[in-house]
Amino acid sequence: MKSLYAFVVAVVAVVSPLVLASSTARRARATHAAPVRTYADCQRKTWRPLQGCPPGTLFVSQNSSRVSFTTIQSAIDSLPHDNSSQVILVAPGTYTEQLNVTRPRPLTLLGMSDAPSQGKAYADVTSDTDHRNEVQVVWAAGNTDNTGKLVDNAITSVLTVAPTWNASLTGTGPTGFAVPADTPFGSADFRAYNIDFRNTYALEAAGPALALTVGYANAGFYACGFYSYQDTVYVGKLGNAFFYDSVVAGQVDFLYGFGTAWVERSTLALRNCGGGITAWKGTNTTFTNKYGVYVASSRVIAANDTIAAEIAGQCALGRPWNAQHRSIFLNTYLDASIKPEGYIEWGDTDPRYGNTTFMAVYDDNGPGYDVEAMKAGNVTIVLDSEVVEPYRSPAGVFITPEGATGNVLWIDGEALASKGI
């Protein structure tokens, strides 16, 4: 009996750490997405492009004799400014251009890829998140002109989805640029699949360098990548942005804005630490709004193993761009890069923090989720199931310009129907 007991103890001693490690891995990987297959037949790489695509789909390629367009923007510019729905298929390649979408009706950009049909998720990465779709849109721009004078952040964006130049501007001051009241709403339903957008202005945070701007528009991104260092993604006024199975990489305030962003089953890649991951400005309205950024069932991880060792315990979940900042990390894996206290104030002499600031977490996991330290810091709000309930789904937070809730018809139905949404 003693020998049997000793054997059992020995087995438990060996197996328990393995079980624990496996359990931790499962929790870290529980956020992984199934790829959206809505356009999988159209996106497949075949010798007959456009096979399986919706009728009228345009084809962009840099090296095919069968195309009318060698740049993505030229294809966008050819579209009628009317109520029709349009689709553009983009062949593999690196496209060095800025993209500007102003048309009000649905437009879908498809990157050619076999990944959707093969069931391969894009955000399914654990360390080095500088990985690539086969379609790359690249631009290098910071917020200074050729004389060194500061210009609006909007001029730097790789992709802009907004009806007018004014609707894309960030502006300055506590309320940002005053978009004219008669500005029309832009795209009711813009979508992009399996495309990376990279602002290569610098190899570290050197001022705003946007990969994406969404203002006065609805935009959904599926298996896309957004790569920069500072202010990677900007969701402007009346902007609604949905990210599924995507990667957003940055260093300083790389999810920022005024509108509403929902990040689902995606990866936020920390290229270094500075400011916070999120920085939001709340806006007063005559109706109840939920403008803010929501990171759900996702992962926040160091961009690679080298940087992970350098930034351990140093990265903030966010900081308030104004005192009405709203953001929540829900059911999300936080790696050891995250500060124990979670969120921080804007700065030592300019905290921008008050009783309207809502910087929160709910039921997260991982080594960066320290509930007691977050509570003790008196900045991060640790939510319970009752308080978080109004924020648990895209339908609960996305609203129309007039304030009506449940504004989700522009989101791909496969992503919306996935478990947990």
TrEMBL record:
GO terms for biological process: cell wall modification; pectin catabolic process. Residues 1-21 form the signal peptide. Gene3D superfamilies: Single-stranded right-handed beta-helix, Pectin lyase-like (2.160.20.10). GO terms for molecular function: pectinesterase activity. SUPFAM superfamilies: Pectin lyase-like. Residues 188-372 form the Pectinesterase catalytic domain. Pathway: Glycan metabolism; pectin degradation; 2-dehydro-3-deoxy-D-gluconate from pectin: step 1/5. Keywords: Aspartyl esterase, Hydrolase, Signal. It holds the Pfam family Pectinesterase. The keyword Signal applies. Its EC number is 3.1.1.11. InterPro entries: Pectin_lyas_fold, Pectin_lyase_fold/virulence, Pectinesterase_cat. It is an enzyme of class 3 (hydrolase). Belongs to the pectinesterase family. This is pectinesterase. It comes from Anthostomella pinea.
